[in-house]
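Quick start: what a row looks like.
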Amino acid sequence: MKAILYVMNRLTYLIVLVVATLLTGCNTMLVHPPSASAFMENDRDGFVRDASISATVGGVAYDFIPKKYVKREVNEEYSYREEESPVEVAVSFQRRYGYFKYGFGFDLLSPYIQVGFVSDYFGVMGWSNLCLWQFEKVEHKYFQWAGGVSVIEQLPIGNGVRIGLTQHLSRNGRENIAHGIYDMGFSIPTPTPIFYDEIGGGAYVSFGVGTGTNVGIEFRLGRDLTYYRFDEKEIDGNIISDFNRYTFMIDFQGW
């Protein structure tokens, strides 16, 4: 009986992942670095369940100029709004076997997977979206990939409190909403992400707030490697500059 329940439990997670992937229609690939503190959470008895909300400032809602040539695949029947959402909501489910950890989750509506090495003091987390192709594209005609890798150093300091440092290299997706141009006067917005490479680091603290529940607070700094920001205050002077993104995340682990 226990073996049957074990198999049914695993099949349930798999079915949820497959159904959610189909419902998204492979229209969203807006994956950003997942929670490092949740990945380093140690739960040997079952899945670590994590829910997070994050806010990003700097480098959003601006005009962007590519640092090098990027092939544009723009449909003339659509108008586009290039703006990165400042708020994200994500959930994930993770399982640890020895020093190996795997899991899956959703960044907004984008399904992704996680794998990596984890110990009490050190971890390496990799992640990737699942949908590599979509109908409406703006950049990269055939390859719609987002993902990355993060190196994590952690120090447990007692009473369930953990602090950590992170370094990451990732390919993120930001929103580029396409609106159809119709004579009827209305359209249905279509998510068409634009991807950018990012390098950065951060820090987190995780602590218990009740039986089986931890709270993680994380800060992450990322430097955009793909685009320059066009300084709107210097339009006539044609001033462009590198820019960073600052992300603040709070997540609840083990709920």
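That is the whole record. The chain is about 10% helix and 50% strand. The radius of gyration is 20 Å.
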